[in-house]
Structures are given as C-alpha cells and as structure tokens.
Design a protein that fits this description.
This protein has no helices and eight strands. It has 100 residues and is an all-beta fold. The strands form two sheets. Strands 1, 4, 7 and 8 form a four-stranded mixed beta sheet that branches. Strands 3-2-5-6 form a four-stranded antiparallel beta sheet, with no helix packed on it. It holds the Pfam family DUF1416.
C-alpha cells in the first residue's frame, strides 16, 4: 500500500523552508465540522487541468507543494464533494474543504 508520510502542522520540524516553498494545505471536513479521512483531494491548475492527488489523513489533513499561482483544490468522498480556489504565494496557503 502506498501513502504519504505523516505530516505535522509545523513544517519546520520536517526540514521544509516555507520561505522557499509554496505549500497548499488544509483539512477536509463534513458539514458538521468533523474531519473526513480517506477523501481523494485533487489539485487542479488555473485551466482546470489535473495536477496531483493525495488521500486525506485520518484527521482529514492534506498537503500539496506547488508553484505560486491560482489553483483549485477539490475533495471527492463517498459522503460528498467539496471545492475551493486558492491564490497561492510562497509560504503556507490554507485551503479548507467542506463536503456537501
């Protein structure tokens, strides 16, 4: 089975220099605010083209490393879907997703 490594909220503990990286991260939640694990979270570029996909963690967390610019983050799950647009700059950019 393949999966992303455990990710902490504090990227500096993972040796990531957020002054040099563009990070898009957030949490997938249900309408009641509870985290949604195992959602497919997709990163789409400004033209809507698929760029990357990860599976949300047990706490609903996800993270992408991307170039600065305009992105769409979309979550797909058996309990619903959610989407948000992000204008990302260098550093950590939050993109929380609520499933409907």
């Amino acid at each position: 089975m393949c999966g992303a490594p455990e990710q902490s909220e504090d990227l500096s503990t993972e040796g990531i220099d957020t002054a040099k990286e563009t990070v898009i991260q957030g949490i997938v939640t249900a309408g009641d605010g509870s985290p949604v694990p195992s959602a497919f979270v997709r990163l789409l570029d400004s033209s809507g083209e698929f760029t990357a996909e990860v599976v949300s963690s047990a706490t609903g967390a996800f993270r992408f490393f991307a170039a600065p610019g305009d992105w769409t983050v979309r979550a797909l799950h058996s309990s619903g879907n959610g989407q948000t647009d992000v204008s990302a700059d260098k550093g950590v950019n939050q993109a929380s997703l609520v499933l409907a």
